[in-house]
Write a structure and sequence with these properties.
Keywords: Nucleotide-binding, Plant defense, Repeat. By secondary structure, the protein is mainly alpha-helical. Helix content is 85%, strand content 0%. The protein starts with a helix and ends with a helix.
């Protein structure tokens, strides 16, 4: 459960950075370049978290397979 919190935060930030209202305010205050860089950073974090989650799941599968094969459980 706790490992899903960073992903949820990154997903929420990504969605907010992509919203029309947020982009409108960014244009109004002239910070679109900074917002785009922030959006790219958040997307990168989101992808890394997804990859880490998949890796963790794969490690559990491999560990379970090894335990079954070695007779240790």
């Amino acid at each position: 459960m706790a490992e899903q919190i960073p992903y949820a935060v990154a997903e929420s930030l990504f969605n907010r950075l992509g919203s029309a209202t947020f982009r409108e305010h960014g244009q109004l205050y002239g910070v679109m370049d900074e917002l785009d860089r922030l959006k790219n950073s958040v997307e990168y974090i989101r992808v890394v978290l997804l990859d880490a989650q998949e890796e963790q799941e794969q490690n559990c599968v491999v560990q379970n397979w090894y335990e079954i094969q070695s007779g240790c459980k």
